[in-house]
């Protein structure tokens, strides 16, 4: 099976090979620029040389504390979150064969967000359980959306509509929590808007294991995603156990999305915008689409975070606001393009 899939991939990858390498190279450059800008810019600005010198010297100086204890953990959390959301969007779009699928639109983020919010508001002493509870909430949301969308198999359009309905329901539940516990919501308002203010090394340690697990699982599963792109019948003829593989990949997507939500809050549209834009360059071969999306997702979130900090300084805008300004018009563009395609 693997030889057949590799042969098929080679036959389709050659015409786009230069564009795929270009997407990976430009993604690496964009991520490096975003990281450099993020670490250098802020209320206290540094040159790259000063940053390196301050970090190497160490100690307990004010500049070292700014760089090591504030900017670095915030930057790394943003990079990991961007990777997780972009990969989750890739997986969902691949297994559903629907370019509109993303963790926010099919309700995964809302399920994880509601579960995390319950812990933060009702059980504030158990915040260490937020990633696990967010994952459980994401899986419960996925199960609910699947049951609503099932009719002799999963219908992509029904799944998107069910996801929108479930996301709206969970959104209402989050609003109700804010009303009933209005004296405890101060710390959750910024979290719901999505952002990285106040993120520390504990957030990096919280998200990193999920990212590593997700990266390994995602790249090992790229051949399954390529097979599913050819259609269920073709995938079965290649020896892929479609239902089992789809469920495993769905759990992986929920894991990635839940870990991102638990660290960054309700940060939407990354999983929608990045895979779709990267696919325009690399095509649908997941051997290239996944790593390129990871790079661009990390670059987008890190870049949006630094823009949120410096664009209207000293006022900091939640990163989720930037993502909405970028993602909402892009989502409408996809809908319009899809409607034209059916006429």
From TrEMBL:
Belongs to the binding-protein-dependent transport system permease family. FecCD subfamily. The chain crosses the membrane at residues 68-92, 104-123, 129-148, 160-181, 201-226, 247-274, 317-335. GO terms for biological process: siderophore-iron import into cell. It is a multi-pass membrane protein. PANTHER family: FERRIC ENTEROBACTIN TRANSPORT SYSTEM PERMEASE PROTEIN, FERRICHROME TRANSPORT SYSTEM PERMEASE PROTEIN FHUB. Pfam families: FecCD. It is found in: Cell membrane. It comes from Selenomonas ruminantium subsp. lactilytica (strain NBRC 103574 / TAM6421). One of its GO terms (molecular function) is transmembrane transporter activity. It comes from the Bacteria. Keywords: Cell membrane, Membrane, Transmembrane, Transmembrane helix, Transport. This is Putative iron compound ABC transporter permease protein. GO terms for cellular component: plasma membrane. Its main location: membrane. CDD domains: TM_ABC_iron-siderophores_like. InterPro entries: ABC_BtuC-like, ABC_transptr_permease_BtuC.
């Amino acid at each position: 099976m693997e030889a057949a899939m590799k042969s098929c991939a080679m036959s389709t990858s050659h015409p786009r090979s230069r564009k795929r390498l270009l997407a990976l190279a430009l993604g690496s450059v964009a991520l490096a620029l975003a990281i450099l800008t993020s670490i250098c810019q802020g209320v206290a600005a540094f040159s790259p040389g000063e940053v390196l010198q301050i970090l190497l010297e160490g100690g307990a100086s004010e500049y070292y504390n700014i760089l090591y204890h504030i900017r670095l953990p915030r930057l790394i959390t943003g990079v990991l979150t961007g990777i997780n959301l972009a990969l989750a969007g890739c997986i969902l779009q691949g297994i559903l064969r629907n370019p509109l699928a993303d963790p926010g639109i099919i309700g995964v983020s809302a399920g994880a967000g509601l579960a995390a919010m319950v812990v933060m508001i009702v059980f504030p002493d158990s915040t260490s359980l937020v990633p696990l509870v967010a994952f459980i909430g994401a899986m419960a949301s996925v199960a609910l959306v699947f049951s609503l969308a099932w009719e002799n198999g999963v219908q992509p359009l029904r799944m998107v509509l069910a996801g929108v309905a479930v996301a709206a329901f969970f959104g209402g539940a989050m609003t109700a929590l804010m009303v009933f516990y209005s004296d405890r919501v101060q710390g959750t308002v910024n979290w719901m808007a999505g952002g990285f203010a106040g993120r520390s090394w504990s957030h990096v340690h919280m998200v990193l294991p999920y990212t590593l697990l997700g990266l390994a699982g995602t790249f090992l599963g790229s051949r399954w995603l390529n097979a599913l792109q050819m259609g269920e019948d073709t995938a079965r003829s290649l020896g892929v156990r479609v239902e089992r593989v789809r469920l495993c990949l769905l759990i992986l997507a929920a894991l990635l999305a839940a870990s991102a939500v638990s660290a960054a809050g309700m940060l939407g549209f990354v999983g929608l915008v990045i895979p779709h834009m990267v696919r325009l360059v690399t095509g649908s071969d997941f051997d290239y689409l996944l790593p390129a999306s990871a790079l661009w997702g990390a670059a987008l979130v890190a870049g949006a975070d630094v823009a949120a900090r410096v664009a209207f300084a000293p006022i900091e805008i939640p990163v989720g606001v930037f993502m909405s300004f970028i993602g909402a018009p892009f989502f409408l563009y996809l809908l319009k393009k899809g409607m034209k395609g059916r006429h």
